[in-house]
Amino acid sequence: MSLLNLYPAIDLKNGECVRLQQGDMDRVTVFNRDPAAQAAQWEKAGFQYLHLVDLDGAFAGKPANAGAVKAIRRAVKLPIQLGGGIRSEATIESWLDAGITRVILGTVAVRDPALVKAAAKRWPGRIVVGIDARSGRVAVEGWAEASDLDAIELAKKFTDAGVAAIVYTDIDRDGLLRGVNVAATAAMARAVPIPIIASGGLAGIADIVALKREAANGAAIDGAILGRALYDGRIDPAEALREAA
To answer: Alpha-carbon dihedral of residues 206, 150, 120, 77, nearest 10 degrees?
Structure first.
């Protein structure tokens, strides 16, 4: 079976490491008031990547947790991918210059796909598209706004753009520990040749096994984002990494 890359998530709100339920800023749990220490903990556990989300930035449309992100960058050597409030080429450039490995473009992928394509051309391998969906329909502006756009149709817009990956999040499951939407993730991974990273609801080792099975059967699934289940202790890092490999 193929390797599945695992991305521990550090979601930032007011400079703290939190988890939300279904993207609702009022349904928040603070897991660590020192995100840099949390990042160092995941690095020590053996993870090879980090997934950061500037939650305040996603709603504000501009970076809002730069201090915490830069503290994390100083604290670990791991490659970092970052999303949330990145809506311009200047913001992309500033984050890449600050040592972020890959930036995730979500709302702007819907509003201005040409910007995403231009950025992917300018910074090969460093642009990721974030597609967040409820019942298969794309949501934007920190998940606050729904659209009529089909998630797979949006993914197809970037087939030849040179983006490094797509992070596909099922909002209905995010933070609820109900399991990854394996079927929807695999459907997207079969519809486009871009590597897909599964996000939203990962509840245990069984989800990792299921995603690996789809990848072994030809779906272009690159990895999975680990959130609440990792913080709650439902997933043991060593076991997860062993299974993913």
So the answer is: -30
Annotated catalytic, 11?
yes
Distance CA 185, CA 5 (A): 15
Residue 72 CA, distance from chain mean position: 16
Residues written for the chain: 245
Q: Which of 54, 56, 132, 174 is flagged as catalytic?
A: 132
Domain 5-244 has CATH 3.20.20.70: yes
pLDDT tens digits, 116-160? 999 999 999 999 999 999 888 998 775 667 778 999 999 999 999
User: Residue ranges per domain, the chain?
Assistant: 5-244
State the burial class of residue 77 (Cβ atoms within 10 Å of its Cβ: 0-12, 13-18, 19+): exposed
Encode pLDDT of 151-200 as tens digits: 999 999 999 999 999 999 998 887 777 899 999 999 999 999 999 999 99
